[in-house]
Design a protein that fits this description.
Elements: H1 8-20, H2 66-76, H3 82-96, E1 114-124, E2 143-153, E3 156-160, E4 163-164
Antiparallel strand pairs: 1-2, 2-3, 3-4
Length: 183
Amino acid sequence: MSPPLRERWHQDELWKGLARNDLQVVSTDHCPFCMNEGYMGQPRQKQLGIGDFSKIPNGAPGVETRMVLLYDGGVVQKRITLNRWVEVTSTTPAKIMGMFPKKGTIAVGSDADIVVWDPRTTSTISAKTHHMRVDYNPYEGRRVKGKAAVVLSRGEIIVAKDEFLGKKGRGKFIKRGSPLLQT
């Protein structure tokens, strides 16, 4: 993946930067290339680089685990506040993408996209239980605290108790506006 994983001491510096607002957002490129052929109908992808490193598809899966990893590593470990976690996972991305206040806030006229978070739940990250269409998880076996209990999209429950309840085709294109960047 790019950039490659770094030495452990870099993590402390990144957390400090996130807490101080030197870093405003944490994101993932979410490139879920499979290791083995046939997983959920996917062809062999990562192994294309055997014998030629330049042919390995770049990236790693991460969209499903991003919020829980930030909560567990940030809020639970007291590196960032709960409010800062919401800011870096929701409000600031919506502002950067020019979608605020339609997205990224709970307010009259906004879309009512809400995650009800259970801070007490503990779980183990695993490819066997994630919902991403990929046969491995880079955080396999990591124990984390906190989890989305319910997810609402435009006021409709689309996830409850780890079950996707949304309907195919209910997505809605949102045209980006101008970014609202802090000065």
